[in-house]
Write a structure and sequence with these properties.
about 180 residues, alpha+beta, ten-stranded mixed beta sheet, 3 helices, disordered C terminus
Length: about 180
């Protein structure tokens, strides 16, 4: 005996089938191996790097055309024990494409590097709110600098960071910018 459906039941069945087909098509669009949701995304312009419980976020240099600037970053100790940032230094290139030294600065030096206490589950920003900023000499806007950060307990982090113009990033208005408007 054949199954007969009323027009109302037929429409409901058709609508349910169309909804199912559409949901499969929409889900398939974002589920392949190249889907955007499977790729890491870094919204900041600086570099992010990790070593054990230490997370460095948005590390970059803001410099003038003469190659004088400051290091900026946020460092979070996600561990249960305090740690210390004990050093920041220039590192040789590890990039096979020759970004540094062919495309980057020949010599980069870091000044005012003092131990920075990294308390458990707290954020530390560079430059610090109190104290001298970490100066960078030799990196001009557009360069990529290879650096190594050493810690008291966590392993070292070696990474490449961008050098941006001084006016590229400003967490608060510059005093001279207020008088221009």
């Amino acid at each position: 005996m054949p199954i007969t459906l009323s027009s109302k039941a037929f429409r409901r069945t058709g609508l349910a089938g169309a909804t199912l087909a559409l949901s499969i098509v929409v889900a398939a669009c974002g589920a392949n191996f190249g889907a955007q949701t499977t790729k890491p995304y870094q919204a900041a312009e600086g570099t992010n790097a990790d070593s054990g419980p230490i997370a460095v976020r948005n590390m970059l240099v803001l410099a003038d055309e003469d190659g004088k600037g400051e290091l900026h970053a946020g460092i979070v100790n996600k561990g249960d024990e305090d740690d210390t940032l004990v050093g920041i230094a220039s590192a040789p290139s590890t990039e096979p494409d020759g970004q540094d030294p062919a495309g980057g600065p020949a010599t980069v030096t870091f000044g005012n590097v003092k131990p920075v206490e990294l308390k458990s589950n707290q954020l530390v920003t560079l430059p610090p709110a109190e104290g001298q900023p970490i100066t960078v000499t030799g990196g001009k806007p557009g360069d990529i600098i290879n650096v190594v950060l050493t810690f008291g307990k966590a392993g070292p982090i070696t990474t490449a960071i961008p050098v941006l113009t001084l006016d590229h990033y400003s967490p608060s208005p510059r005093p001279d910018a207020e008088s221009e408007g």
